[in-house]
């Protein structure tokens, strides 16, 4: 393993119905004004919204509602939330939802603490604010294919042999596949849902990344595809992954062979990638660009723009060039 430092200062409460206990424990430590941030109607339909409101009221908090956080949250939505947080002097942000809501709130929390535009800070002055409004999250959903993708992309980055990060990554992938299959049998299998929640935390809490480089080329392509088309992150990844992996199969034969054996019980590297492609179909996920729910038509021209602007990762099994990224995207059509 390479040199690393690792810290994970996040307290996690896990389990069905645990939110009430978590909030009873944690809210007294927060200031008076809490921004309750969420997406659309599902939080209200499920009754979680009412439960959170009443727990916040019991804790004597003044609640500022911030709703309508969309999938692929926009810059404008971040600015809207930051403006509201500043105007109402929000002391704590409680994000309730999945990755989009939580990620949007992370950026709001730092944008609300500075007068500088966060986009300019990140992309022009190259600095990122260290201070943010404290926040917590009630996680109501996790994208299971995204979990698998994060673990696969971390695993396929360069690493030395026999390191524990690779072993844990393979275990997270295997467990994600097993529990996704359980949900295909019974969508209300709460134990499988809980397992997938923890798999998603394990895939991206940093544990898998210690002491090694990571790939994330599929993510870079998908982020750009999402920016141009507004397709769902997990669905875009499902389309891109098998095609990308067929391109780089020969660049990491041992890693793909181990992935095949340990995640899908297949004998060869190639069979492992094809098992991944079949699994994506089995889950009912899209396998082609035209199956993505996109607000713009996905044409070769759009894909050219995606290929010409996406980040290129240097530490994956093989550095791609823009022509090959375009080729990969066109093979997904
Ligand atoms: Zn992701």
How would you portray this structure in words?
The model has no long low-confidence stretch (mean pLDDT 94). With 333 residues, the chain is of the alpha/beta class. It has helices at 18-26, 42-45, 48-58, 75-87, 99-111, 118-125, 144-155, 164-185, 190-204, 217-229, 233-248, 253-264, 269-282, 300-309, 322-331; strands at residues 33-37, 62-66, 92-97, 135-139. It is built from 15 helices and four strands. The protein folds into two domains: 18-139, Rossmann fold; 144-331, Dehydroquinate synthase-like - alpha domain (Dehydroquinate synthase-like, alpha domain, Up-down Bundle). Helices cover 55% and strands 6% of the residues. It is globular, with a radius of gyration of 21 Å. A four-stranded parallel beta sheet has the order 2-1-3-4, with helices on both faces. Helix 4 (75-87) crosses helix 5, helix 7 packs parallel to helix 11 and helix 8 (164-185) crosses helix 12 (253-264). Bound molecules: zinc ion. Residues 146, 149-150, 219, 233 line the site of zinc ion.
């Amino acid at each position: 393993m390479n040199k690393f430092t690792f810290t994970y200062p996040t307290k996690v409460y896990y389990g069905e119905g645990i939110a009430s206990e978590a909030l009873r424990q944690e809210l007294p430590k927060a200031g008076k004004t809490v921004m309750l941030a969420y997406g659309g109607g599902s939080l209200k339909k499920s009754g979680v919204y009412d439960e959170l409101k009443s727990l916040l009221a019991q804790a004597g908090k003044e609640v500022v509602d911030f709703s309508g956080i969309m999938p692929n949250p926009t810059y404008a939505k971040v600015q809207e939330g930051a403006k509201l947080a500043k105007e109402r002097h929000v002391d704590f942000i409680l994000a309730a939802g999945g990755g989009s809501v939580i990620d949007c709130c992370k950026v709001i929390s730092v944008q609300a603490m500075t007068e500088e535009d966060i986009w300019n800070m990140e992309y022009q002055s190259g600095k990122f604010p260290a201070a943010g409004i404290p926040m917590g999250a009630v996680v109501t959903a996790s994208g299971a294919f995204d979990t698998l993708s994060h673990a696969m992309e971390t695993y396929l980055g360069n690493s030395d042999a026999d390191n524990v990060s690779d072993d844990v990554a393979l275990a997270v992938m295997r467990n994600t596949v097993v529990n996704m299959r359980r949900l295909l049998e019974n969508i209300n299998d709460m134990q499988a849902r809980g397992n997938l929640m923890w798999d998603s935390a394990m895939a991206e809490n940093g544990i898998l990344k210690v002491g090694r480089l990571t790939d994330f080329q599929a993510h870079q392509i998908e982020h750009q595809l999402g920016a141009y088309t507004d397709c769902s992150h997990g669905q875009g990844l499902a389309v891109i992954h098998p095609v990308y992996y067929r391109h780089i199969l020969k660049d990491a034969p041992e890693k793909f062979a181990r992935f095949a054996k340990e995640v899908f019980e297949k004998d060869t590297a190639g069979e492992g990638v094809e098992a991944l492609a079949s699994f994506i179909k089995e889950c009912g996920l899209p396998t082609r660009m035209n199956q993505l729910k996109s607000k713009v038509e996905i044409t070769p021209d759009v894909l050219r723009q995606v290929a010409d602007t996406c980040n290129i990762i240097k530490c994956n099994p093989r550095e791609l060039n823009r022509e090959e990224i375009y080729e990969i995207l066109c093979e997904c059509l």
